[in-house]
Amino acid sequence: MTPDDTLSVAIATCAAWPDPGPGLLPLIEALTARGFDVTCLPWQSVDEQAFLTARVILPLCAWDYAAAPRAFRDWIARIAAGGGRFANAPDLMLWNMEKSYLLDLAARGVPVPRTHVIADPSAGTVAARMREEGWGRAVLKPAIGQSGNGVTLLELARIGNWPQMPPGAHVLQEFQADIGETGETTLTFFGGAFSHAVLRRPAAGEWRANSQYGVALERIRPDKAVIEVARRALAALPTPPAYVRVDGIARPGREFLVTEIELIEPALFLHLCPGKAERIVDLLCCAA
Predict the structure, then answer these.
(1) Which GO terms describe its molecular function (predicted)?
(2) Are 11 and 40 in contact (CB under 8 A)?
(3) pLDDT in tens, 83-138
(4) What's the rounded Cα separation, in Å, for the pair 254 and 226?
(5) Separation of alpha carbons 269 and 43, rounded Å
(6) Alpha-carbon distance 266 to 206, whole Å?
(7) Which of 29, 107, 202, 231 is the most buried (most CB within 10 A)?
(8) pTM (predicted TM-score)
(9) What is the SS3 assignment for the chain?
(10) Confidence of residue 3 (pLDDT cuts 50, 70, 90)
């Protein structure tokens, strides 16, 4: 079935959290005000007609796909094959699922943390890589992960206290020791145009800039140089996205370091940025 002529938007949520969070309410309200029919339902839903017939699909609340990555990949492929239209290209989202995409960005000249893909996350393998790099501390993350789950800070001098890592691919990165001071700068783009930026500052004594660890949010105006590096990151993507959030560390006098690009379910922080939801609606209206 192909999408019909109605102005309909399907926001994919997930079985663990079937309702959209408050951060998306401005978007839902803006879409409704413009005449869009908005449906929110988990990507795991048995009845997929709402996705297949929607003018556009926004998987902005698919917050649990890391628990079932194969099923999520199959869902994207099945919906796309059935005529479903995702805002961001299916191949782009599939590429973005695994954090090994950072190696692609680095190869295209985007400044990212030194990153290694570790197929065997055993202590011996990880420690050997850290010694090769001369890292006293490093961060180990599941290659497919969300919301900071499974992210572990490892100190080489305390290898005897390391937790046992679950099997599967991981990425190993040099620890950015000043993250607690600098915070993480997030830049949101719609249709390739910069929209807004929010600083995520970790809680005292914490180094992870994720909501579950008590991060504080603040809308900011980033330097032009920061925005330009983010634009370079967008230019390095396989295909242009309709929406994207570029995360990184902004240090005075130094080049913006891109730590992550979110192309599937980024928090857009629309509740902190009045009027920005209308930019997405404008984009969808042009596409419709």
Answers:
(1) ATP binding
(2) yes
(3) 999 999 999 999 999 999 999 999 999 999 999 999 989 999 999 999 999 999 99
(4) 10
(5) 22
(6) 21
(7) 202
(8) 0.94
(9) CCCCCCCEEEEEECCCCCCCCHHHHHHHHHHHHCCCEEEEEECCCCCCHHHHHCCEEECCCCCCHHHCHHHHHHHHHHHHHCCCCECCCHHHHHHHHCCCHHHHHHHCCCCCCCEEEECCCCHHHHHHHHHHHCCCEEEEEECCCCCCCCCEEEEHHHHHHCCCCCCCCEEEEECCCCHHHHCEEEEEEECCEEEEEEEEECCCCCCCCCHHHCCEEEEECCCHHHHHHHHHHHHCCCCCCCEEEEEEECCCCCCCEEEEEECCCCCCCHHHCCCCHHHHHHHHHHHC
(10) very low
In the numeric block, which tokens belong to residue 207? 């180094």
